[in-house]
Structure formats: structure tokens, C-alpha cells
């Protein structure tokens, strides 16, 4: 049986179209569950294709009705109508895109391949509609005379910017060429991401001899055995790859040959074979440069950064070089000290020494950390049990600052047994949002950590947010606790900062909601929220030994922070290197882009040219598995983390100057930043909150680089 779905009424017109969709398709109507939570127990892979087809067809009909309206263009019948359009497509996209990265299967991956160019063509068809753009242009030119509030003016501005940047002013031939470029890019970036997922799974290290795992805890060894069994390697141990170049276990493994094996598996991912990304990278970079030229820009970086807070690549690169020079100087000093430690250990143990290599740095840095600070980062994990950190740390801060409370809900269906759902209540007890926590790694889950929405906040559409955080923690053996490193605790707070940005959003229009802000601003709330992971009063609330409940000694927290600053040169350098590689790729013109054979060497060449190459410190991501820039939304934008961190550390300094963790400060931050989305120019939002332009000094102090 099929039902007829009448599309949204647009500006008083008749329904744009009636579209047949099977009545049992879960995307046919808004979910009946609280907050329009996706009905995962009803969603099947076979539902996605029909829902996508219906959603695109319905939005096309809606756009035709808007563009063809006999009424003169008005804000309501054009801009607001655009905001109301495409709701079926939005529903299916949010679920599908989340599952494609967190719980994929062969059917989803195949459909993702097929859909990518179709969705790109669909977006182009909207942006290239000359009649529709004519209505937007007319409203934009008359904006000073329109009786609009500030948020509505911003929405009109953003639509105009979006259409112009998408090529609405191009001629017919150029539009056709741009559409071809966009479709091919969509297919290539999808294939890049899928290659990284498969290459990472294929490159996992299988260990035959348990002696090689010397240095790991018994819980880690048990988890490696369980991971091996799940992949069919009975009686062996499996080390899965983390998303970054430097693998966390390098800090613990005493067996140097296994460290080297693990490191090389990491850096050679997707470099050749069935998952070779080198040809894909060469093509992506060339097509992006061609697209930028078609749109009137000298490079993809120039195109991207025009609409970011930084505005141009010179500003971004100046910041990276300024911080990078200090970080590299610190890293070189640390490298010399690590080399002395290697020689001293070799002499004491009557064996030959060796030259420090990238696979040695984490291990000997940990040894030096223990020697200098009397601090074992593995033993500190006993104080950071996941549920306690979440409840008594992350949620505690959200309550103390913003008045939020969290109630776990087991009545809502989830897509995987690891996922937990919490209802978020505001200070007055009113329902605010749903928060999903998906924290464990899986073979079919993209590496790294991220936040996304299943439902975005909008007063216009009457929608409250449904937000998810994803991490990739190693799942312990049954009955064992999930113990976090200090960096993983920081990551938990970081991603929840993004979640707060989505959950506390309070705007009218979907396009301006929550995290729909420039990349070099979107990382600001998340990086600010990280500060609570090292705030003594907050740490005292959540850092308890998982067995006996003993609190983390205050002196140990000071040691942890001091020891992090000790290795900050390495961490900052690896980040800056990756960000500069990103800019180097995207500052090229189409004529300058290398062929596939030169892709593998490009990273080193780019860093050498900028004076920031250092063999002992590899970039956080090499190009072949750099998901942020070749499969995510951070092309020519990976610098954003550092740019945003300046704002975050300024905010931390502001809070400390105004009494720290209290409801008044939270109310100010919520009212001026977190609730505002992109309803105002983000630079103005920050300056109105902070009282002036950003200051880099708190960042340097926080990182110990001053």
C-alpha cells in the first residue's frame, strides 16, 4: 500500500506536489517518537533509496513552486519557503549520513557511492535556477527597505552568499561545467572516505606472540584478544589503527620492532593497492582548483576562506607559522633530550643505541615524563572511568554553567547496542534536547571523534535538537571498566562542547541553527569546553579511582598538566604540519597540481618549503588518510582548530576573571554565543561577548609556549 504525501504549503500556494511513497517507509512522515527521534527499529537499508528519490523529487517540486509563484518575491514566499522545503530529504540524509560513518555496511556504502553525484546534481539544480535566484537577488538588493529583524536579515544574506558562491551568476555553459565538477568531486570524496575506512581496517596489526605486547596492561591485552577473535584471529591479538598518524599504544609498547610495524602501518594507509587514495587526491585537488577558477578565485583556498572568519589564507598561514615556529623549537629541544635518554638507557643495558625515530618518540617521551614528573599516564587512567567522567564531569559542568540535567532513556530504539540516549532538560525542567553517546570503536565505524545532528533545532519548524557524539574508544573485555587517558577525557569534553552548541541553539531558521557556522568558529565552543577537563574543581568532582573511589590527588593533576606542556612542542607541531599541508594543497592552481605519482612526496615537500619539516615529528595526518580535508568539510580549513582555540582560551580567561564555573557566566555565554548559531556575523558575536578582538596570549600560556 502507498500513501500520498502532500508537500509543504509554500507561501499560500497549492501543494507543490503529491508524491507516492510506501506507507511503511519510516521517512514518509516525521517520526512519531519524542523529539522526532529516528525510529531505528523500523529503518532498513532498503528504505533509504526510495526515501532519497522521493525527498529530492519533492524538493524539486517545492522549488518549482517557489520560483514560479505569480506573487512578487517576499521574504515569506521565497526565503522562508526555501527554509521549509526539503524536509523529507533532510530526514533521510541526517540518518543515512550518520550511519554511513558510524555503523556502515556494504549496502549503505554502495548506496552512498550511487547517491553522492545525484545529491550534488540536485543541489546544483536548485542553485542554478535562474528564476529562483532572481527572486533572491531582488530581495537582497531591497534588503534595506524590508521590515526584517536581525536574524531574518542574516538569513537573507546567507542565502544570497550561498547561491552566488554556488555559481548562480554563471552562464549556462559554465553552470554545466560546474555541475560536472561537483558531481565528480562528490563521488571522489565519498570513495576517499570509504578507502580510508577499509584501509584502516585492513592495516590493523595482528600479533602472534604475546611477549611483543609487553608494556600493555592486562585489560588492554584482553581487549586486543577479543578484537582478534571478532575478526577471526583466534589465539592472537589485534591492534586496530587510530585515525591519526601517531598511534596511542606507541607510548606503551616496549618491543621496538612492533612499534615500527604499527607506525608504518599507520603512515602507509591508503597509499597503494585496492584502497589507493593517491590518484583520488590528485584528481580532487585539480577539480577543486578548476572549480575555484570557474567561480573567479585563484585557488580553492581563496574560495573557501573568503567565507570564513580568517577571510584569506595569508591570515591562516601567518597564525600557523607563528605558533609552528615556537612549537618546532620546543620539539627540537625535546628531541635532543629524548636522544640522550635513549643513549643513557642503551649504555646502562649494555646494548647499542639508535637514532630517535617517529615510532620511538611517544615511548621515550612517556619514559621521560615518568622520570621527570614521577607520573605514569597509564596508572592515571584508573581515575578516569568513562561513565563517571561523563556523569560527574561533562554533565556536571553543563549543569553548573547552564542548569542542564540529563536523564538516560532506554525506551528509544538505537542503531547499535553501544549507543546511549539521554534526555536533556533545561534549568526550569522543560525538555530541551536528546543526546546520543556512541563512544566505542567498531570495524564499520569511521575513526576519530565528531558531533552531528539527527534533528536540528528550529523554531520555524518546531524542532528540538537530537545530537550525537562519536568517539572511538577501545571497548574493554566484558565486565571490565572503560578507563580513559587524559587525552581521551579531553576529547570527551571537546565533543560535548560541539553538542552544547547544537543543543543550546535557539534560532528561528534551520540554515542558521547550532553548528551551522564557519569552520574557524565551530571549533570555538568545543575547544572552550575542553578547559574543564583540567579545571581542579571539576576534576575533583569526577576523577575517582574506579575500584576504591579514592580521589585523584590534587598534586597529580598539576603534574598531568605540567607533563602535557612538557610534550606540547610535539603535539602542536604535528597539528600545525597537517594544517599547512592542507593549505599547501589548496593554494595550488589547476596547472600546479601534481600527478598521482607525486602525491606521496607532497607532504614532506610542502613542509620543507615552509621550514617546518622535522623527521622525528610526523604530521597528525598524512594526505592519504586526511579525512578532514579530502572527505570532510575542512578542505583549506584544518587551521580552524588553532584559530578557534584563540577564542576558546580568551573565553577561559574571561570566565576565570568573572568567577569561573557559575550559572551567571553560563547564562552570558549561552545568550551571546551558544544559542545564537549563525544568526549574526560570528566575529561580531565574539567581540560583543568578549568586549574586544581576540588576544593570542591566553592560548600561548595554556599550551606552555609563551
Which features would summarize this protein structure in a list?
alpha+beta; Neurolysin, domain 3; 5-stranded mixed sheet; two-stranded antiparallel ribbon; 7% strand
Placed side by side, the strands forming the largest sheet appear as 5-6-7-9-8
Distance from N terminus to C terminus (CA atoms, Å) equals 68 Å
Query: Would you count the extended β strands for me?
Result: 9
Rg: 26 Å
- CATH C-level class of one domain: Mainly Alpha
Strand content: 5-15%
Number of helical regions: 26
- Assign a percent range to the helix content: 40-55%
What does this structure look like?
By secondary structure, the protein is α+β, with helices and mostly antiparallel strands. Among the domains are: 2-169, Neurolysin, domain 3 (Orthogonal Bundle), CATH 1.10.1370; 203-269, no CATH class; 382-543, Neurolysin, domain 3 (Orthogonal Bundle), CATH 1.10.1370.40. 54% of the residues lie in helices and 7% in strands. It is built from 26 helices and nine strands. The strands form three sheets. A five-stranded mixed beta sheet has the order 5-6-7-9-8, with helices on both faces. Strands 1-2 form a two-stranded antiparallel ribbon. Helix 20 crosses helix 21 (599-609) and helix 24 runs antiparallel to helix 25 (682-690). The longest helix has 36 residues, at 313-348. The chain is globular and about 90 Å long. Residues 1-18 have low confidence and may be disordered.
